[in-house]
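To whoever is on call:

I kicked off a structure prediction for a single chain this morning and the downstream step that reads the tokens threw a length-mismatch warning. I double-checked the sequence; it's 253 residues and nothing unusual in it as far as I can see. Pasting both halves so you can look.
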Amino acid sequence: EQIVRPTGIPDPEVEVRLTENQLEDLIKEIKARAERGERSLVLTTTKRLAEEVADYLSERGIRAKYLHSDLNAIERAKVIKELREGKIDAIVGVNLLREGLDLPEVSLVAILEADKEGFLRSYRSLIQIIGRAARHVNGKAILYADRITPSMKKAIEETERRRKIQLEYNKRHGITPKPIKKRVVSLLSVEGLDLERKLPGVDIEKFRSEEEVLKEISKLEKEMWEAANNWEFEKAAKLRDRINELKKLVGLV
């Protein structure tokens, strides 16, 4: 188990806050980070809510944009580039994990409806979402919820366990966490093209649990073998790629 990072950056602090006045609280947190030149990610559970939250933040003076599957790959890449360059301060999205985001400028991950049971708020998803703030020395994850679900409890405990080990290791070896510097690339670069490859049409919102994802994988595997048996190799290859993306969502690859 690799817990300690070469940069010395520990897993983020995790805090649970009540949903009452959560957007006002969120605005305060995003503004504080923007003043320090840091960025924020906000996670919702639906595309519509992502758009509404982004619009509300914009109305309140936050430079924010939404990011979800209705945008094409180039549009998504443009939004991500704007965040990294500091042209916007926050991105609001549903399942930002699927974007393959590696954003060292992000110090805050805010999870709305953290206690809404389902695939998007499962233990594995929460761990991965919280980890989006583990690229910044001031990383913090705020979970807005009115109760602690078993998935939340497990994710918080695991993050705190890892953070404790990392901080103790740093202290023992005199390590000061170093900020990660990563070049912002052109949309026309190879990274822009890679992004398109990483974003197949997997509509995460239609899955309510990991079990449903596994059922979809099983169904697609049957279709893939049928296509292969019928010499429809292009169709089989597309199905295989979709299966692999779904497997990534549930940690099978």
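Update from on-call: the warning came from a stale cache, not from the record. Cleared it. Sanity check on the structure: The helical segments are 22-35, 47-59, 73-85, 123-130, 150-173, 190-198, 210-229, 233-249.
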